[in-house]
Design brief:
2 domains
Length: 112
């Protein structure tokens, strides 16, 4: 299987499809209606039991109002976005705490 980063391309596609489907406020049923497929087909895709043909991927992207390439982008995947957010938050928090501690130490030293 072709790998992109640490996640397979199919895994990335399914994660992104689910993420953008929910972001668009669509149920599996509504997405299925929009692309002319059955709800079971969407469910099977999201359960990784099926992978869509290129024509279906185009229909899904159009229904979700995203480009097909976004559905395959690891940078767009919820896991990557969550991980990036955690890393940035942790770094910001660490810097803020370090600055506060340094300020408190300087304040105590100034009183001595």
């Amino acid at each position: 299987m072709l790998q992109t980063g640490c996640m397979g391309i199919r895994h990335i596609f399914i994660q992104n499809m689910k993420y953008y489907r929910k972001k668009a406020g669509l149920t599996q049923e509504k997405l299925a209606e929009a692309i002319g497929m059955s709800t079971a087909y969407i469910g099977d895709m999201e359960a990784r039991e099926r992978f869509p043909k290129a024509e279906t991927i185009d229909k899904i992207a159009k229904a979700l109002n995203v480009s097909p390439s976004i559905l395959f982008s690891e940078q767009s995947s919820p896991e990557t976005l969550k991980s990036t957010f955690k890393q940035n938050y942790a770094k910001t928090l660490q810097e803020e705490l370090s600055n506060r501690i340094l300020k408190d130490i300087n304040d105590v030293c100034d009183m001595i």
